[in-house]
Amino acid sequence: MAEWPTRQTAAGVTVVTPDGRLNMVAAPELREQLRTLVQDGASRVVVDLSGVESIDSSGLGALISGLKAARNAGGDLRIAAPNAQVMAVLELTNLNRVLRPRESAEKAFDEPE
Amino acid sequence: MNRSEPGTLDTTTGATTLDEIHTVLEAFWLAHPDVPEGIRLRVGIATAEIGANIVEHAGRGESIRLRMETRAHPDTIEIVFTDDGWGAEVDLTAVHLPDDMAERSRGLALARSVLGELSYRRDGTTNCWILISERFG
Asked: What pTM does this model have?
């Protein structure tokens, strides 16, 4: 199973950087990677969407799955740098309320929830 | 993949089907540069959702025959999917977005929200999904 690049910020936040189209092919991989990261102790996670071309409902499901896992571990999952397509899908599904897009991965945890 | 005519996809579903659908839609937009970006984005969202729905639910893990046709009418864009998979038991007038924390079941509500019309019918052993959008918004 493919894994997307991850890195740690100076503040100890784990950043995952998927790319391409987050659809029913890629979503299970992202879901599993997020689940594993949280299980291994990363409770503050940013999904950097700057390289994501498009997302569909299964991609949203993977983000929500990761959000729930992170919150259950006492942390949070935030998203950063979505393009216009991703923003449209978030707004159309009202998920921009629970996955409020942040400008950049580095600053995603600088603001309160 | 065997694209028998421009704007049309005839395929057997598999791991690359969603990429094939995307490629056909991109070619369709190239052939119709007058369609504004906002409409392309919305039709793209709906087409991806319905395509994924067919692959997942009509196929039920098996490959099925899938045809996608793209049509530009003077005032509308029409995408037609036909497949020979399992029938869908769905009431498109009743689809709605689930709870924010749900991990599934947003696809049809999302598709319907960006289209002028979304319809499904079963003809014998064939499923037919018709997606209609305004052409100019």
From this structure: 0.95
Please give the torsion angle defined by the CA atoms of residues A91, A108, A48 and B47, in that order, rounded to the nearest 10 degrees: 0
- 8 Å CB contact of B18 and A54: no
C-alpha distance from A30 to closest chain B C-alpha (Å)? 13
**Structural domains in chain A?**
19-92 (3.30.750.24)
Burial letters B7-27, b for 16+ CB under 10 A, else e: bbbbbebeeebbebbbebbeb
Say yes or no for a CB contact (<8 Å) between B56 and A24: yes
Inter-chain residue contact A54 with B44, CB threshold 8 Å: yes
Question: What letter does residue B79 receive in the DSSP assignment?
Answer: E
pLDDT tens by residue, A29-68: 999 999 999 999 999 999 999 999 999 999 999 999 999 9
Return mean pLDDT, chain A. Answer: 95
Query: Residue ranges per domain, chain B?
Result: 8-134
With CA atoms as reference, the chain A residue closest to B114 would be A92
What count of residues does chain A have?
113
Provide the pLDDT for residue A69.
98
The fold for domain B8-134 equals Heat Shock Protein 90 (3.30.565)
| pLDDT score recorded for residue A1 | 56
Q: Say if the Cβ atoms of A21 and B18 lie within 8 Å.
A: yes
Measured N-to-C along each axis, helices A57-72 and B37-53 cross at an angle, to the nearest 10 degrees, of 80
Residues in chain A closer than 8 A to B97 (CB atoms): 93-94
Element (H, E) at B76: strand B76-83
